[in-house]
Amino acid sequence: MRIARIRALIVLCVLALVAGVVTLWAIQNDSQLAAGSDCEPGAVEIKTAPIPAPEEIEVVVLNGTDNSGLAEQAGRQLEDRGFNVLEVDETDEEYEGSALIRYGPDDYPAGLHTHAYFYQGRDEFDLEWEDPVTVVIGEDFVEVRSTSDARLSFSLGGGITAPEGTCTVE
Predict the structure, then answer these.
(1) Which long-range contacts does 87-93 make (Cβ < 8 Å, 24+ apart)?
(2) Over the stretch 75-124, which tens digit does the pLDDT of each residue have?
């Protein structure tokens, strides 16, 4: 082997070694790997995605009216649409609207998804809420929306934004 070939091989090996060291250094010091948190101090972190399928959402349905059977009707309709209805019961709290959907930070996307199934329903996010998504059926309740109507309502909702006192994480 000639001296020129040996010199060329040595230069190539040194270049490969330098490239390897630079690559390792770049990976270890990559600022994109560190999660940049834009959360204010004291803000509760919530996930806004992925939106769970109805089968993954646990719901409690309560009747907030004097009309017996409304919670059972809404519970059956939610089950028909795939929701996991844990409990159907009466409540002393009366509600005059269509439905009040309550949920907390752990169930934020599930609460939004459930809200889309109720015509003129009102959602109520509570930072302290630890129970499953709870639907209080009110005087104006007629029926649970169809899956296609709920999807349309959800898509027209203008996107998901984090409520006050929270910040989104992936």
Answers:
(1) 87/60, 87/61, 88/60, 88/61, 88/62, 89/60, 89/61, 89/62, 89/63, 90/62, 90/63, 91/62, 91/63, 91/64, 91/136, 93/62, 93/64, 93/136
(2) 999 999 999 999 999 999 899 899 999 999 999 999 999 999 999 899 99
**Each residue's pLDDT tens digit, 124-169:** 999 899 999 999 999 999 999 998 998 888 877 766 777 888 888 7
Whether residue 19 lies inside any domain: the answer is no
- Structural domain contains residue 14: no
**Domain membership of residue 87 as a residue range:** 44-169
Statement: the pTM of the whole predicted model exceeds 0.90: no
Angle, CA of 28, 34 and 36, to the nearest 5°: 155
- Assess if residue 32 is contained within a domain: no
Q: Does residue 12 form part of some domain?
A: no
